[in-house]
Structures are given as C-alpha cells and as structure tokens.
Amino acid sequence: MIKPIIYHFFLLYLVISLFPIRIGAFPNITILPTTRIFYSFPLIFNLFYDLQISYYCNNVFIVNPLWYNLYHGVILVKKRLLQIYNRLYSEFGPQNWWPADSPFEVIIGAILTQSTSWKNVEKAVQNMKKKGLMTPEALYKAEEQSLAEIIRPSGYYNMKAKKLKAFVNFLFNRFSGDLDEMFKTPTALLRKELLSIYGIGEETADSILLYAGNLPVFVVDAYTRRIFSRLGFFGEETTYGQIQRLFMDNLPPDPCLFNEYHALIVALGKDYCRKTKPNCSGCPLRSGNLF
Ligand code: SF4
C-alpha cells in the first residue's frame, strides 16, 4: 500500500520538476528542473534532510526545528543558502568578525572602510586611538578639521571626517551619546534613522546594526552581489533590498549566522571569486559539488 503512494508522489514530483519555477518575490531566481530533481530526493525524506539545513556558528551546531523548515515556503533556496554557508564555513572556518575592541570602534570602522581597503582603515583607527578619539564623547568634542588629518590614511578623509561627526552628532542629539540606548530602538526604525545620517548608506547602516548592535540584519556588499549573481540567484540589476531579502527571508534570523555568512562571502570573494579571472577550478563551492 505504502509503496504505490510513494511511487505516485515521486512520479508527480518528477513531472512537476520538468518546468522551471520562478519565485514570486524574486523574479530573477529560477529553480531549474535539474536542480529540483536533484533536490526532490531529500525533500521526500525531509526528516533526514533537516541535517543539511543545520549549521555551525561559533563552533556551535545549530539544528533548525522541523516546524521552521515546513513553515518556510521557499524551502529549496533556504537549503541551498545554508549548504553554501556550511561549505564555506568548513573551508575557511570562523572569521571572528568584526575586528574591533568595542561596538563604537565597529561603527567607526564601518564608516572609514567605505571605498578603501581594510589596511588603510586600520591605520586610521590606530591614529584615532593614539589621539584618544575612540569614544563617543571624545569624537563629539573633536574638531572636524583635525579629525580629518588624523584619519588621512583612510582616504577621502575630509568627507569621512564629516561623516564621523554626522554620526556622533546624531548619537548625542538623539540618544545622549549612549550606544546601548541607540540599539534598543526597534531595528527597522533605527535602520531608517541611520540611513538619514549624512554618509551612511545601506551597507554601512546594516554593518552597524549587525556587527555593532548584534541585530539580525544581513549585510550585502559587492562580493555578495558578484558571487550570488554568478551562482544564478539573481541578475545584475537586482537591488540591495531584494538581495538582502533573499537572505533574510530564507535564513534563520540569527545574528551569529549573518555575521559569519557575510564574512565568509568576503573570504570567498577575495580568495576565489575575484572580479576578473575567478579561480573556479579551486573554488570550494565547486569542489563541494554544490554547483
Ligand atoms: S569562483 Fe567560480 S565557481 Fe566559485 S562562486 Fe565564483 S564563479 Fe562560482
């Protein structure tokens, strides 16, 4: 009795698998029939497959509950995203982001890193530390012109000094200089407020929320766009918000996972998925038979 049911279910699934599916919210994503046939096996044995959508973070093994897996409609995308994460994590290991001594330093770094390498940011951060400027109070009192000289190694130093002052002025005017108070604001509202500050765009605002506030907000950068468009998740013209929703709608809202995932994407982008001449033959995603 049970065998014909499984047989017919399987047959039906194979027939459905012949047609590409477009996912409503992400018109650029098409799950190809071959991919779906491949995934249909584990879907039938969903219980066993649950192990594949679990992940490591901070060396803790996290298993998603079954209800979570069943609840989320776009189950294939979610599993694929976590498979990629697991492959990258096993290849590169924990990345321990963000390299900073305090949430305030994370915010400074997030602003200074715009359009420059992290090496240059480190020099500017060290200069600020030497001058005792790595606290909200000290930065609030600092003169914009002298601050610009101090952060000169980060490039675009006049503009960045203006941005740092704009942020710290916001922090004092709105939260009396108290970062903990700032992060108590509902995340969506705080994001909106951060975006209204001079020099803070989406990537910077989200880096602040995730890496300084430990809030479950996914950071999208050029590496994310490049790698996941090459993997066929979306087209080049997809907006920041659409890419972010792809991750946030399909991954558990875990700041640890989002933190590590973004850092691993950067590692892959730097070491393998370079802008020109990507090293596909050595890429861990390819060697992991994920694509
Ligand atoms: S390096 Fe090649 S195989 Fe790896 S993600 Fe980039 S395009 Fe894909």
UniProtKB/TrEMBL annotation:
Keywords: 4Fe-4S, Iron, Iron-sulfur, Lyase, Membrane, Metal-binding, Transmembrane, Transmembrane helix
Pfam families: HhH-GPD
SMART domains named in the record: ENDO3c (SM00478)
Membrane-crossing residue ranges in chain numbering: 6-25, 37-56
GO biological process: base-excision repair
InterPro entries given in the database record: DNA_glycosylase, HhH-GPD_domain, HhH_base_excis_C
GO molecular function: 4 iron, 4 sulfur cluster binding; lyase activity; metal ion binding
Domain HhH-GPD: 112-271
Protein name: Ultraviolet N-glycosylase/AP lyase
Lineage of source species: Bacteria, Bacillati, Bacillota, Clostridia, Koleobacterales
